[in-house]
Amino acid sequence: MAVSGQRRRPVVALYERIADAVHDGTYPPGSTLPSEPKLAAELGVSRPALREALLLLQEDGLLTVRRGVGRTVNDRPPRRGFEHVQPLEELIGSGGPLRVRALLRTVEEPTDFTTQHLLAPARAELRFWESVLTGEGTAAALSHEWAAADDVLDRVHPEFARALRATEAAASSMLAVLLGASRETALSAHSGITATLLGRRRGDQLGRPADTPAVLVTQVVRIGETPILAAKHMLPTGTPALPVLQSH
Questions:
Q1: Do residues 121 and 111 make contact, with C-beta atoms less than 8 angstroms apart?
Q2: Close Cβ partners of 227 (under 8 Å, ≥ 6 residues apart)
Q3: Strands (DSSP E) found in 78-212
Q4: Which of 51, 72, 96, 195 has the greatest number of CB atoms lying within 10 Å of its CB?
């Protein structure tokens, strides 16, 4: 999910500074943070602002307060969330990435969704991948992914176009293929999250009742102003938590 470039509230910026220090190993898992006065001095912030940021970090699972010890970094800090373009199977996998099981790999004409999000003309041919993400034998999510038409990809991202043609039968998500082909290409993305029910067909695919509550994540990935991938991810109740960073 693209993060706004607008100015952040001070506590959010401070939260991010400390979280970045945790994730880059400055404060490794199991370590104890400096005392509040010392940490405030090191960061050049007030103690009330620091205390608020530390509380948010505790709520989000990065830190734990231990009596007589202080604030310690959790052994397994949560993965950074949807602020980075990352395959869903890696983002929500607990203890390791989920497995991708291909249900369908085909070419289809645009739907309302892909017309809107990929700006595809009515008779375009779009690659469509339907996959189930599984972990420990349980279906955790259902993904529908569409790539822009071949002529668009050949023009704006030929490496992705070639990689798609070479991996159509692979047990991989389309987004994972895109990221693997984009080491030298800047991508941006945005996502939306809504509550819904699985419905009969998706319930059958995930082995859940049709009226199971679920979260629907829509995602569009772009190069510059050109959309090249659109996706819908259905996450039913019981799916591992999806980390999401929100800021403004």
A1: no
A2: 117, 118, 119, 148, 220, 221
A3: 99-108, 126-135, 138-147, 188-197
A4: 72
Q: How far from the centroid of its chain's Cα atoms is residue 135's Cα?
A: 17
- At 21-52, the pLDDT tens digits run 888 889 998 899 999 999 999 999 999 889 88
pLDDT, tens digit (0-9, with 9 covering 90-100), for 176-222: 999 999 987 889 998 888 899 999 889 999 999 999 999 999 999 99
Strand, coil or helix: 32? strand
On whether the CB atoms of residues 178 and 127 are closer than 8 A, the answer is: no
Average confidence (pLDDT) over 13-20: 84
Enumerate the β-bridge partners of residue 191.
219
Alpha-carbon distance of 186 to 124, in angstroms, equals: 25
d(CA 69, CA 54): 15
Residue 11: predicted pLDDT: 76
Closest CA to 242 of 218, 217, 224, 220: 217
CA distance linking residue 246 with residue 219, whole number of Å: 16
CA angle, 92 as apex, 71 and 111 as ends, to 5°? 145
Residue 1: pLDDT above 80?
no
Q: How confident is the model at residue 13 (pLDDT cuts 50, 70, 90)?
A: confident
Which residue shows structure tokens 């830190």? 63
What span, in angstroms and rounded, lies between the C-alpha atoms of 189 and 114? 15
- Which of the pair, 78 or 151, is modelled with greater confidence? 151
Radius of gyration for the alpha carbons in the chain, expressed in angstroms and rounded: 21
Instruction: Assign 140 to helix, strand or coil.
Output: strand
Q: Is 25 left (phi over 0), alpha (psi -120 to 50) or beta?
A: left
